[in-house]
From TrEMBL:
Coiled-coil regions listed in the entry: none
Residues in 3-hydroxyisobutyrate dehydrogenase-like NAD-binding domain copies: 197-316
Catalyzed reactions: 4-hydroxybutanoate + NADP(+) = succinate semialdehyde + NADPH + H(+); glycolate + NADP(+) = glyoxylate + NADPH + H(+)
A GO cellular component entry from the record: chloroplast
Protein name: Uncharacterized protein
MF terms in GO: glyoxylate reductase (NADPH) activity; NAD binding; NADP binding
Similarity comment: family membership: Belongs to the HIBADH-related family. NP60 subfamily.
PROSITE patterns: 3_HYDROXYISOBUT_DH
Organism: Oryza nivara (Indian wild rice)
Length: 324
């Protein structure tokens, strides 16, 4: 059965954490002793790796764009020139990549992590991908004798910086227990959901709800303005009622000003909706609201908003209005 373990653990730099602590729990969890690799230093990967370094872990990093490693190297990280090199020099390697294609390339491609894997090592993929991709990566990793855990995260740039992510893990439970203290540095809670694929599925279901909520919120903001209400007042009213959500309170004020500082890139939200639609189709479930939302994110991408925050989807609605 799925288990939830809440920890007061990761608070990034605010927590003194020993990577070689040796306490253990009945589930086999203990402090992590060994070297940690981190592949992919984008919006999420960089703060997650920083928190591990600040907690005292021995971290080795790699990123396709080499310059993004520099801030981590300044904090004390080591560098290796390929995912294979990171994996072979570390005990456990995390990967935070953009999408299924990049996650597969980094894990299974030329000089990919699988080439540096061996029995006793572990690979933890924290990217948001679909179950089939995760299973493919898991197969490559475990064929080397290493262990595999998928662990996509819920929570955005700020929770990543604050060590307050929610891990949705599945796969090798021994590896889950082995890296528990590392997950607790980067997150506030963790779920172990069973076989590889269940973490990916959970993440896609959560994000399809989030993507649709953002579209609905956007429609409300525009409609309120059009009928002569102050959209800032709408944000305030929503924040006090049953549909209050941190996402609305956080992003609403800047959306009213047509500002979309990127925390969760719109292109990644659209990727998640695309993958969620395929997941629903695999079990013949109709998700018409998500399908409609996905179309709007696609329009937003075509307007050049792919790298803006996903709240910029409101601009696709505005464009529809203008083309009337
Ligand atoms: N941002 C958010 O709020 C959240 C994001 N996520 C998920 O986490 C993952 C990462 O997101 P985020 O950090 O925001 O994304 P970014 O776009 O900021 O970072 C993507 C990372 O993937 C790397 N990458 C992309 N393509 C390739 C490739 N072909 N080969 C090697 N590396 C590649 C990038 O390298 P380079 O620097 O060279 O471009 C970068 O390190 C995504 O799956 C996203 O859906 C999950 C929760 C929250
Ligand atoms: O995947 C995005 C998030 O905010 O969670």
């Amino acid at each position: 059965a799925p288990t939830l373990r809440l920890r007061g653990g990761g608070r990034g730099a605010r927590l003194v954490f020993s990577c070689s602590a040796s306490s253990s729990s009945p589930s086999g969890e203990g402090g992590f002793s060994g070297k940690v690799g981190f592949l992919g230093l984008g919006i999420m990967g960089a703060p997650m790796a920083s928190n591990l370094i600040n907690a005292g872990c021995d971290v080795t990093v790699w990123n396709r764009t080499r310059s993004k490693c520099d801030p981590l190297l300044s904090l004390g990280a080591k560098y290796e020139p390929s995912p294979a090199n990171v994996a072979s020099s570390c005990d456990v390697t995390f990967a935070m990549l953009a999408d299924p294609e990049s996650a597969v390339e980094v894990a299974c491609g030329a000089n990919g992590a699988a080439q540096g894997m061996a029995p006793g090592k572990g690979y933890v993929d924290v990217s948001t991908v679909d179950a089939a991709t995760s299973k493919l990566i898991g197969k490559h990793i475990t064929s080397t004798g290493a262990s595999f855990l998928e662990a996509p995260v819920s929570g955005s740039k700020k929770p990543a910086e604050d060590g307050l992510l929610i891990f949705l893990t599945a796969g090798d439970e021994s590896l889950y227990n082995r890296v528990a203290s590392l997950l607790d540095v980067m997150g506030k809670s963790r779920f172990f959901l069973g076989d590889v694929g269940k973490g990916a599925d959970m993440k896609l279901v959560v994000n399809m709800v989030m993507g649709s909520m953002m579209v609905s919120f956007s429609e409300g903001l525009l409609l309120s303005e059009k009928v002569g209400l102050d959209p800032n007042t709408l944000v305030e009213v929503i924040s006090q009622g049953a549909i209050s959500a941190p996402m609305f309170s956080l992003k609403g004020p800047s959306m009213v000003k047509a500002a979309y500082p990127t925390a969760f890139p719109l292109k990644h939200q659209q990727k998640d909706l695309r993958l969620a639609l395929a997941l629903a189709e695999s079990v013949s479930q109709s998700i018409p609201t998500v399908a409609a939302a996905n179309e709007l994110y696609k329009v937003a991408k075509s307007l050049g908003l792919a790298d803006q925050d996903f709240s910029a989807v409101i601009e696709a609605l505005k464009a529809k209005e203008q083309s009337k």
